[in-house]
Recover the amino acids of this structure.
């Protein structure tokens, strides 16, 4: 079995074993996002801006990283696919929250998600270009 080093020292096994591992991590991470967002909220917020929304940036940045690593060997399309899936998860997560007591859907949260997604995508593009 040949091992190539790439992307910050991650090892890539021929045959896509690492892609499968990151695919499983991505699926588990998406499930965790929906499980946690499905917990009813007990906190009433007075203002429209919720400081906890800033946590969406690293949360969706990490999801985007996992998705990019899942499709890493497929070239430029992997980045577009990872961004699309991450944005889809963000939108469906907010739509899901409409049905959860004490939670509400927020376009602002989707914007914060998009900032995290775009930031990680940009970081990966720069990193790949420097290799």
């Amino acid at each position: 079995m040949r091992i190539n080093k790439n992307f910050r020292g991650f090892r890539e096994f021929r045959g896509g074993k690492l892609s499968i591992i990151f695919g499983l991590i991505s699926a588990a991470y998406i499930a965790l996002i929906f499980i946690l967002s499905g917990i009813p909220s007990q906190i009433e917020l007075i203002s429209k801006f919720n400081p906890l929304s800033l946590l969406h940036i690293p949360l969706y940045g990490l999801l985007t990283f996992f998705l990019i690593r899942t499709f890493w060997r497929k070239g430029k399309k992997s980045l577009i696919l990872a961004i699309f899936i991450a944005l889809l998860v963000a939108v469906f997560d907010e739509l899901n929250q409409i049905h959860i007591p004490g939670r509400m859907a927020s376009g602002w949260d989707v914007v914060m998600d998009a900032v995290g997604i775009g930031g990680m995508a940009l970081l990966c593009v720069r990193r790949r270009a420097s290799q």
Summary: The CA atoms of residues 64 and 117 lie 6 Å apart. The two ends are 23 Å apart (CA to CA). Residues 3-129 form one domain. Helices lie at 17-37, 56-70, 76-97, 107-129.
